[in-house]
Specification:
Layout lengths: L2 H14 L3 E4 L2 E4 L3 H22 L5 H10 L2 H27 L3 H6 L4 H15 L2 H19 L12
Antiparallel strand pairs: 1-2
Helix pairs in contact: 2-4, 4-6
Length: 159
């Protein structure tokens, strides 16, 4: 791609993605890449934090083995914890993604669950998340095809 083609491509992409979208009185803006990477790191750490909140001191492997022997009461206790903890984690993450104070989201009567979903959808749109996922998938196929010899089963063999 020459320089002019790159500029045209960049212009076409930036024109197709809104820089900001208003949802229920909140401006949903495109995130700088550094902030996006921080949010993705938060997503990566969230399962471990949730596990520690739901079943303190257990590793994922230990939790899986405990599931086999867990009593109905223990399972019920864990599910109640999950129901009370998961929404808070979701709102906290969304607040970080949107750059909004978590308390504002929790106190705003105009938002509700449907509003949170609209906000997440708007965030995905202005940040081109679907485009990124599609492009990353295509890139993964290209990379895999470039390192897999034609006619092979997909596994690389050492010579």
């Amino acid at each position: 791609m020459n320089h002019n083609t790159k500029d045209l491509y960049r212009d076409a992409v930036s024109l197709s993605l809104p820089r900001e979208k208003n949802v229920r009185g909140y401006a949903i803006r495109r995130m700088p890449i550094g902030q996006l990477l921080t949010a993705l790191q938060t997503l990566r750490e969230m399962p471990g934090e949730l596990l520690d909140t739901l079943m303190p001191g257990l590793t994922p492997k230990t939790l899986l083995s405990r599931f086999r022997t867990m009593s109905a009461q223990e399972l019920k206790t864990m599910l109640v914890r999950a129901v009370t903890v998961l929404p808070g984690y979701g709102v906290s993450l969304l607040a970080r993604l949107l750059g909004v104070e978590e308390g504002d989201l929790l106190r705003d009567e105009m938002i509700g669950l449907d509003g949170l979903a609209e906000m997440l959808e708007a965030w995905m749109e202005v940040n081109g998340i679907e485009n990124f996922i599609r492009a990353a998938g295509a890139l993964q196929v290209k990379v895999r095809n470039s390192i897999t010899p034609a006619g092979s089963s997909g596994s690389l063999q050492r010579r």
